[in-house]
Amino acid sequence: MSNNSNLYPGLNLGDGHGEAHEQAESTVFGFWVFLMSDLIIFGILFASYASYLDPVGMAGGPGPQDLFDIKSVAIQTGFLLLGGVAYGGVSLAMKYEHGRARVIGWLLVCAALGAGFLFFEVKDFITQAGKGGTPQVSGWLSSYWTLVGLHGVHVFSGILWILAMVAQIAIRGLDEVLKVRLSMLGVFWHFLDLVWVGIFSFVFLVPLA
Amino acid sequence: MTKPNTGELDPQDNAASEVRSYAIGFIVSLLLTVGAFAAVLADLPSTWAIICICIAALLQIITHLRNFLHLSFSGGQSREDLLLVLFSVSLLAIMAGGTWYIMSDLGGRMHDGGEAGHAAHAMPDR
């Protein structure tokens, strides 16, 4: 029974981790509440974007066909998907105590993939601004920059969080407190991947279809 | 929910099934992503392409929730987690769906003419 039941979102540490597992139940749940409120923010931004997605919202400025580079979006999607799966490595290495070197290794893989995603995203933003697609040009562009930019900021803070966790693991070892923090980070990191599914589908692909 | 805190780790076969869960999640997500991009790149009529993208996105979100966030939809999950997801989704449906509906309706009425506007607009064309 205990194998199948989850106390909180994300890969559960399991009974073997005793205190950390129990502490994570309330802490990760609280963090999940925060993420769901974050989801509402993203949802409202998606709605604004969809509302502006017509000739009036574009106000004579450049549109999706002029600005979006589907190849770059595909590359970003690949980076983020792989980054999300790589966090599975962190969770499993932590749960089955493969040692802190493995946990740090997987964390660095996640950070690198996240950074690759951000590199292409920022490159796209710069190209788009160069083509006259700056946020102040039209309502559609404002909502685009806000929504995609907010997600980018999330990924950036996720990378900072990962690096902070690497430093903490290196200094104090993989103790109970850090296990709970890593569980929260995992939920956050997978959540970003989830939001990106919405972004690449509805922000990029639907207008190009 | 019993928690026999024996201090022992779960058996390794549990680990294998968890690795498989991530692998399945990855493969399914990859296929759905490729499908969505292919729908755009192939010369489908745009309505069909959009339907494909929406279905792929929905399935991929469910896959992420199940395989990466390990939310179980059939019991075995702390009830609050799932209730919170469902509550957030219903809030979103009201707020985001409502916004989109109102704004597109308003846009339709103000710019290319709503039901009343249609008649007025259609006249000069013919």
TrEMBL record, chain A:
Keywords: Cell membrane, Membrane, Transmembrane, Transmembrane helix. GO terms for biological process: aerobic electron transport chain. The lineage of its organism: Bacteria, Pseudomonadati, Pseudomonadota, Alphaproteobacteria, Sphingomonadales. It is a multi-pass membrane protein. It is found in: Cell membrane. Cytochrome bo(3) ubiquinol terminal oxidase is the component of the aerobic respiratory chain of E.coli that predominates when cells are grown at high aeration. Has proton pump activity across the membrane in addition to electron transfer, pumping 2 protons/electron. The chain crosses the membrane at residues 29-53, 73-94, 103-122, 142-166, 187-208. Residues 29-208 form the Heme-copper oxidase subunit III family profile domain. This is Cytochrome bo(3) ubiquinol oxidase subunit 3. Signal peptide: none annotated.
Automatic annotation (TrEMBL), chain B:
Keywords: Cell membrane, Membrane, Transmembrane, Transmembrane helix. GO terms for molecular function: cytochrome bo3 ubiquinol oxidase activity; proton transmembrane transporter activity. InterPro entries: Cyt_c_oxidase_su4_prok, Cytochrome_c_oxidase_bac_sub4. Its main location: membrane. The chain crosses the membrane at residues 21-42, 48-69, 81-103. Pfam families: COX4_pro. It is a multi-pass membrane protein. One of its GO terms (cellular component) is cytochrome o ubiquinol oxidase complex. One of its GO terms (biological process) is aerobic electron transport chain. The keyword Transmembrane helix applies. Cytochrome bo(3) ubiquinol terminal oxidase is the component of the aerobic respiratory chain of E.coli that predominates when cells are grown at high aeration. Has proton pump activity across the membrane in addition to electron transfer, pumping 2 protons/electron. Belongs to the cytochrome c oxidase bacterial subunit 4 family. Heterooctamer of two A chains, two B chains, two C chains and two D chains. This is Cytochrome bo(3) ubiquinol oxidase subunit 4. It comes from Aurantiacibacter rhizosphaerae.
